[in-house]
Write a structure and sequence with these properties.
single chain, 137 residues, alpha+beta
Length: 137
Amino acid sequence: MKKRTIIIAALLFIVVFYFTYTGKAYQLKDVIKVDEANVTRIEIDTDEGKHVVDDKKEIKQIVHSLAKIEVKKSKELDPKFDQAYWVKIVENGKDAYGLTIYDNDYIKAFSFEDKKQETYTIVKDQKVDVKKLFSTK
């Protein structure tokens, strides 16, 4: 009986450890709650300069592209990167979210309303072409 209890406890520990450290994957739309209809502007800042998108069609395209990105929560505080993109999503004239996208590896999401920031790892089996994502005309 004692041996059985130890085995069950060990299995339970392994299951908890597995789910704690592997993390669940989310789509970015589940992490940041953006109401596409209320987005009035998206500001994209890169090393090449700043680009402001206020055309509804372009906003819709960017929001849909961002929403599909799969991410997992990360404990990385200071990600290493070559290229970073700062994206500010404005809803009804008020800053809603700030996203910092580091290469194709990490996204830091900041909620201006809650004043909270979370870091996410972009799921590796997908390729996010960040330059193409933000190459609106």
